[in-house]
Design goal:
alpha/beta; 2 domains; 4-stranded mixed beta sheet; Glutaredoxin; de novo design (two linked rop proteins)
Amino acid sequence: MRRKRSLPLIYRLSRPLIGAIAIAGAVLTAYLTFTKLFGGEVVCTAEGTAGSCGDVLNGPYGTVFGQPLSLFGCLAYLSMAVFALAPLLINPEQNKSLRKNLENWTWLLLLAGSTAMAVFSGYLMYLLAFKIQTLCFYCIGSALFALSMFVLTLIGRDWEDIGQIFFTGVIVAMLTLVGALGVYANVNNPIVETPDADGLIKITRPQTSPEPPKGWEITTISGESEIELAEYLTAIGAKKYGAFWCPHCFEQKQLFGKEAFSEIDYIECADLENPRAQSAACKEAQITSYPTWEINDELYQGTKVLSELAEISGYEGTAEFKYKM
């Protein structure tokens, strides 16, 4: 009891605090994952910018290995919660040795986990500031959670071997950074047009930077079905909202092809004098992410394969579309 009272307050509170932050982070990322998987909308638009949390969530950096990045974040937060709180569930009076061993091992896991999360979050903040160039308050909040857990891990116990902290931190940080660079290495891959067994061509993202006001040059060739669908969409008053710098908007253009997309009623949302600001027309239409389709007075977010657009709009013409995602 004397030893317990003599422990600094931060030593006694560090695990509960880390556990609480991890649970909060898990709830946050679970919400984002649910929204992504079930097609919901995350409303988080910063005044004066074209981006939003939904824009980031649906963008190329929001997906890893075909799954929402927030899903992996949720799993990481849940793991941190388990590492932090599991030893507290063991009564030290009944099994002192087990609790001590579990505390030692989980502190190392907390150190490795919080270091990895802090480094990866730092890299995401770099992408947010310099690549995506928008505000995402959920993303910033998650990064603050990760940083807080890292700091609490460092100051939350009496580390006997400072070299152990430094060595573990450096190794984990390097591995995390290399992994992050590898995960996003293919975000800006060049366009590859290779027909599959069904004769369909897969659309991928461009490698070069977009040039205002048109962005990337459309390189695909429209077929009869693509042109017919585009003419039908325009006839019923459908509109496509996008931004010239948006990779997903370009993918949508490539799915139609150059000839067909020229028939689409397209509205540019980027203010050409300030590309990261949103045009008045898109603000008035309450567009929060790109691309967004307005069909029969309903808004549909995200890139749509042409068969899906045909179904949404009620198109009944030929549907021998050439391209796929």
